[in-house]
Every structure is written in structure tokens, then in C-alpha cells.
Amino acid sequence: MALQGSLLDQIDDVGLRPLVGAIRRVELTRGAWIDLRPGWLTGADELFSRLSLGGSAGVDWQGERRQMYDREVATPRLLRFYHAHETLPDPVLTQARSALSAHYRGELGEPFTTAGMCLYRDGRDSVAWHGDRIGRSNTHDTMVAIVSIGQPRTFAMRPVGGGASIRHTLGHGDLIVMGGSAQRTWEHAIPKSSKATGPRISIQFRPYDVR
Ligand SMILES: O=C(O)CCC(=O)C(=O)O
């Protein structure tokens, strides 16, 4: 997988910039909101290299299959889900989870615990419109925080039941947090791209029993 690096990433060690004072909140409809913190993670290209290695040095990426009408097809992205008790594949991800838990403690009332990871190998990899509605997020407000590294991809959101979609281009260490009712009243997707597109990894931090 060829990653075209960002100049900014090349001059930074892997780490985190501050959250306080650097987050922009966008209120959506029906009690949903997003927080945006571009370039939160520094050294994103270096982290990408570490995580995209297979085997013991990186992440044991797994393909998934799903039933589509009468045939089984491969899900178009690779995945690895880290349960709360598992060690995350890089110390900076543990720091990121702690920093998010500390920053949102008052508003969320509980820590982020799990880390879902997705590898989009090129523009053909994608995820269709959905809300993260397994568990308490099906009935309660919550937060899902996503850090994107690698090539930027469109992160699209639209209201459930219809309405204009919004789009943000996320990669190279950008953070988006979906909050309030966003998992119930809005949907999100990473659309396919017909342009030449390098690989992207997203890391999603969620509280217990939200998926
Ligand atoms: O890759 C992303 O940023 C979104 C991932 C996502 O929506 C999911 O895995 O539920």
C-alpha cells in the first residue's frame, strides 16, 4: 500500500496536540453535533506505517464477509476491534483514548473504552450509510470519536429520513467526534472514490456497550 505523506507529518514525532481551545463544535439537527479538531495527532504517517504492518509488529487486520442476497461477499475494508481489556497496538492510541476520556468526562459521564480500527486500502474500500446503533447508542445519546490517518477520505453524514448531507475530508491525524443523538438521528459513511486514492486508517473510540 503506497501512502503519499503530508509534509507536516514528516516533521513531527508521533504524539497529540492539545484539545482544549482547538475543537470546533458544529450543531446538527435533532440534538446531534460534531466536534472537529484537524491535525490532532502528529506524526500520522509514521503511525500509519506502524499500524499498516501485518502480524505481530502491527495490527492483525481481518477481512469480514457478509451475506448479500444469495451470495456471500467480502466487506470492502479490513478491520480489527479492540475490546476494553485488550492492549492497543500503539502507545499513542492509549494516550489518545485517555485524552478523549479526560476532555469529555463532564459531558459524556464515562470513559471511552474500546477502539475499532478500519483500513481502507484504496478508493474501492468504503462503508455504507449507517449509525453505530448496537448497544446503548440505539436508545441513548453518546459519543464516537474517530481519528483518521493516511490519505484523506470523505466522511459524509446525513439526517435519518432525508435531508442535505454534510461532508468533511479527514486524514493525516484529524479528529471528529460525533455526539448527542448523532448515532440515532444521523447516519455516516465513507463513500467509494473513483479517483486514485491511497490507504487510510480510522480509529474509532467508543464507550462501553456502544458499537
Ligand atoms: O472510517 C471511518 O471513519 C468510519 C468508520 C465507521 O463508521 C464504522 O466503522 O462504524
UniProtKB/TrEMBL annotation:
PROSITE patterns: FE2OG_OXY (PS51471)
Listed Pfam families: 2OG-FeII_Oxy_2
InterPro entries per the UniProt record, alphabetical: AlkB-like (IPR027450), AlkB-like_sf (IPR037151), ALKBH3 (IPR032854), Oxoglu/Fe-dep_dioxygenase_dom (IPR005123)
Positions of the Fe2OG dioxygenase domain: 111-209
Highest taxon of the lineage: Bacteria
An example molecular function term from Gene Ontology annotations: dioxygenase activity
GO biological process, one term: DNA alkylation repair
PANTHER family according to UniProt: ALPHA-KETOGLUTARATE-DEPENDENT DIOXYGENASE ALKB HOMOLOG 3
Protein name: Alkylated DNA repair protein
UniProt source species: Flexivirga endophytica
UniProt lineage: Bacteria, Bacillati, Actinomycetota, Actinomycetes, Micrococcales
